[in-house]
Design a protein that fits this description.
The protein is of the alpha/beta class and about 450 residues long. The chain is built from 15 helices and 15 strands. The protein has an 8-stranded mixed beta sheet, sandwiched between helices. α2 crosses α3. The longest helix has 27 residues. It is globular, with a radius of gyration of 23 Å. The two termini are about 45 Å apart.
């Protein structure tokens, strides 16, 4: 913990509020260690039980995490609004940033022409009673999903994939329930699960998706929901194969009450076929976001599922946000209908494929096995994340440490390939090789 921040309080509520304040002001930055329970209790002249209750409340809200002998630390991205200046540290001068996990802005379709066309044909503003899913968007979405083999039944919209997952989990689960998630998996999802007071159970992942044995073990351990990434899995690039989908479907027949959530965030950017599990359990949902192919600011995802599940999400939305803006809906529909946009998305998918496979091939030439079957990320196993990240920073590259994405998986690095130019591949592969296999210091001579 930062020596400059003093936790205060005489009750569990006051102590947890003091720590939350430190997190909010960045006096307690992500990863900062909190004092041991007994040490803080002695310092504040309270009982250890009081400090334990404060830490428990912070854990249940997802602000801190306890990691055995490593003690209690602030989570990498705790769910509390920090001062804007602390939201993201400025990039170090001269470093090439391969840590963001975002699409290449130069490959995103421009919104301007379509927004101008919408403005010219805006008509009267809708009222509160006129909100909801536009019928023409629902029809187009069902057709696009059906073409990929997804049952196009009940449908609603959410403000992105993570918003949809949050609403699904909130509608079916309660704090303390267990959720089976990919390990390594999406960092934002792990943060969300912590913020909801749910318990993650990690499922190992290979190039073909979550291992069937791992899913079975998680379900036997009490998981009430299973969240899978269809393709372009973050951070490993895994994509569920036909064989893996068939094996998982067979397994899930024995767990009909499980909530099954599939996230197809790559959507139109994916260069591998979709093998959905939709309908394998009674309660299921399939999400397709618009953010990766069309732009992160297009906060919209299509959600289809069984009647009860979709009704719960739609009903909760109605008493909260109300609906996803029809302006966004009309913009997405215009993008879907534009052949030039489809061509641009296809070019972007080809570009990501070329950059990713080039880096994997360059690493293989150097005797290093990395993973990245689809999407915009490559996962590189390493013996030690800290030393590898430091070595890469010294070489001018910034990558994401795998600890952000892991529960029990082995150490690794996530490398986002979207900022790479073709000429970057060789020097990056050389730097990665040196970081993974640092030269041994010379021995002593007599």
């Amino acid at each position: 913990m930062s020596a400059r921040y003093q936790v205060t309080g005489a009750t569990a509520v006051e102590i947890s509020a003091s720590i939350e304040s430190g997190i909010r002001t960045a006096a307690l930055p992500p990863g900062a260690a909190l004092p041991p329970v007994r040490a803080l209790a002695a310092e504040l002249a309270v009982s250890p039980a009081t400090v334990s209750r404060a830490y428990q409340e912070l854990r249940q809200r997802g602000l801190v995490a306890t990691a055995g002998r490593h003690g209690t630390r602030v989570r990498p991205r705790p769910p509390v609004a920090a001062r804007r200046s602390a939201l993201r540290p400025p990039p170090a001068p001269g470093l090439r940033d391969l840590s963001a996990g975002e699409p290449d802005p130069s490959l995103l379709p421009p919104f301007g022409p379509h927004l101008a066309a919408l403005a010219a044909d805006a008509g009267a503003s809708i009222g509160y009673s006129g909100g909801g899913v536009l019928p023409e968007l629902a029809e187009a979405a069902r057709a696009r999903l059906a073409a990929d083999g997804v049952p196009a039944g009940e449908l609603t919209l959410t403000g992105g994939a993570l918003d949809g997952i949050e609403r699904l989990l909130g509608a079916h689960l309660r704090p303390g329930d267990a959720v089976a998630v990919e390990d390594p998996g999406w960092a934002n999802l792990l943060d969300l699960i912590a913020a909801l007071g749910l318990r993650p159970i990690g499922v190992p992942v290979d190039d073909e998706g979550p291992l069937t044995a791992g899913v079975s073990a998680a379900l036997s351990a009490g998981a009430r929901a299973l969240i899978l990434t269809s393709r372009a899995q973050n951070p490993t690039g895994a994509a569920i194969s036909a064989a893996r989908a068939a094996a998982l479907r067979e397994l899930l027949t024995g767990w009909p009450e499980l909530l099954l959530i599939e996230d197809d965030h790559a959507a139109e950017l994916a260069r591998v076929p979709l093998h959905p599990l939709a309908g394998a359990t009674r309660s299921w949902a399939f999400l397709r976001s618009a953010s990766k192919p069309f732009g992160p600011d297009l906060r919209l995802a299509v959600l289809v599922g069984d009647e009860t599940t979709v009704a719960r999400v739609a009903g909760r939305t109605r008493v909260g946000a109300g609906w996803v803006s029809t302006v966004l809906q009309r913009l997405l529909l215009a993008l879907w209908r534009d052949p030039a946009v489809a061509e641009q998305v296809d070019r972007a998918a080809e570009s990501y494929e070329r950059r990713r496979t080039a880096l994997l091939a360059a690493l293989a030439e150097r005797g290093i096995e990395a993973r990245g079957r689809s999407g915009i990320n490559v996962w590189l196993p390493v013996p030690d994340e800290t030393s590898a990240v430091t070595a890469l920073r010294d070489a001018g590259w910034s990558v994401a440490p795998g600890a952000l994405y892991r529960i029990a998986a082995e150490p690794g690095l996530r490398i986002t390939i979207s900022p790479l130019a073709d000429t970057d591949v060789t020097p990056l592969a050389d730097a990665l090789a040196r970081a993974v296999r640092p030269p041994h210091p010379g021995g002593f001579t007599a």
